[in-house]
Write a structure and sequence with these properties.
The protein has a domain at 2-142 and 179-204. The protein is built from eight helices and eight strands; from the N terminus they run αβαβααβαβββαββαα. It has helices spanning 7-12, 61-65, 83-98, 100-105, 120-126, 151-157, 178-190, 208-235; strands at residues 22-26, 68-76, 108-116, 133-136, 139-140, 146-149, 162-168, 171-173. It has a five-stranded mixed β-sheet with strand order 1-3-2-4-5. Strands 6-7-8 form a three-stranded antiparallel β-sheet. Helix 3 (83-98) crosses helix 7 (178-190) and helix 6 packs across helix 8 (208-235). The longest helix has 28 residues, at 208-235.
């Protein structure tokens, strides 16, 4: 977790035994449910191998329990090639840094979940309709989903697919603008939107764009795996495996 702290640790680090106001959870590959990885200051979560009795977050439960909190989810298809996902994630981190002092002073905890959506089943369970997505207390910060063709995402699966665009103050952006994210956070905190996170209903069917993405990616991964098998067969004189003794 230490290598993923980024800018958050610089802003939210606090002195003494209490934890910071940002709590980050990384979703393991292939899982829909989150698992506690601790907070941005690196304090192990309850039940983790690094935690021992009487240490970590459980040391001062009254501090966190007495504070209000909001849940923020960052859902994405890729952070290696998709610059729209990368930029949105970076802007989200910068937005949290910008409002850190306000949230800290008013006793607000932020639970940030970063979710890599990798399968159709996972997307359906999460109610995921477009990449990337930012939700605050279960609500998309932009309810009107707009997308445009993006080559980087197409390179991931070998098929033309669309990626999300954002509309803020009358202009279109390929990354969620930092100002838009800050406004959404402050609206939820101080605009009377601090209710419990909304329960997300699983989708019955994915949008056509995501169907196309996952189908093409599945085919591309299958072709790559098949190519590896063919190469191994060609390298064997009998077409079974290099280690086969059939040629002896």
């Amino acid at each position: 977790m230490a290598e993923k702290k980024g800018l958050l640790a610089k802003v939210f680090g606090r002195q003494g035994g209490s934890c910071c106001s940002i709590r980050i959870e990384e979703i393991p590959e292939g899982e829909n449910q989150t698992s506690n990885n601790g907070c941005c200051c690196g304090v192990p979560a309850s039940g983790s191998p690094e935690k021992t009795a009487g240490q970590g977050l459980e040391k001062a439960p009254q501090t966190r329990d007495s504070r209000r909190s909001i849940d923020i989810e960052f859902l994405y298809l890729d952070l290696d090639a998709c610059t729209r996902c990368q930029g949105t994630g970076r802007n989200l981190e910068e937005a949290l840094n910008e409002v850190a002092g306000i949230l800290e002073a008013t006793g607000i905890n932020v639970n940030l979940k970063k979710i890599h959506v990798q399968t159709e089943e996972q997307a359906l369970a999460l109610g995921f309709v477009s990449s990337p997505t930012i939700r605050i207390n279960g609500q998309d910060i932009q309810l009107d989903v707009r997308e445009s063709l993006y080559e980087s995402c197409g390179d991931l699966c070998g098929e033309e697919v669309d990626c999300r665009i954002w509309v803020y103050q009358g202009k279109e952006y390929t990354e969620a603008p930092k100002g838009m994210i800050i406004e959404a956070i402050l609206k939820h905190v101080y605009g009377g939107c601090m209710e419990a996170p909304a329960l997300k209903e699983p989708l019955k069917e994915l949008p056509e764009n995501l169907k196309r993405f996952f189908a093409a990616k599945r085919k591309k991964d299958g072709d790559a795996a098949g190519g590896t098998g063919e190469q191994v067969a060609r390298e064997s004189c009998c077409g079974i495996s290099p280690e086969s003794k059939c040629c002896n």
